[in-house]
Amino acid sequence: MAYRITDACVACGTCIGECPVEAISAGDIYVIDPDKCIDCGTCAGACPTEAIVAE
Question: Among 18, 24, 46, 55, which has the minimal tally of Cβ within 10 Å of its Cβ?
Fold first, then answer.
């Protein structure tokens, strides 16, 4: 079960610094690489807009 970033993302960058495996990349909204994601949920817990959800 990987995590995904929804349209609620405001590109604040909080999640990037929290990801222990650098699975998140920046853009208009951020994207999680499902092949790198280790399903730890750290990014979801850090997201101030609750834009990161488990798939």
Answer: 55
**According to the 3-state scheme, what is the secondary structure of 4-47?**
EECCCCCCCCHHHHHCCCCCEECCCCCEECCCCCCCCCHHHHHC
Q: Give Cα 45 distance to the centre of its chain.
A: 10
Nearest CA-CA partner of 2 in 33, 47, 45, 48: 33
Residues 28-47 have pLDDT tens digits of 889 999 999 999 999 999 99
Domains of the chain (ranges; CATH) run 3-54 (3.30.70.20)
The tokens describing 38, both together, are 């280790």
The model's pTM:
0.88
